[in-house]
Amino acid sequence: MLAFGPLDRRLDTRKWIAIGGTSAIILLLAVLALFSHLPSSLHGLLLRLQ
Question: Where are the transmembrane segments (predicted)?
Answer without folding.
Answer: 16-38
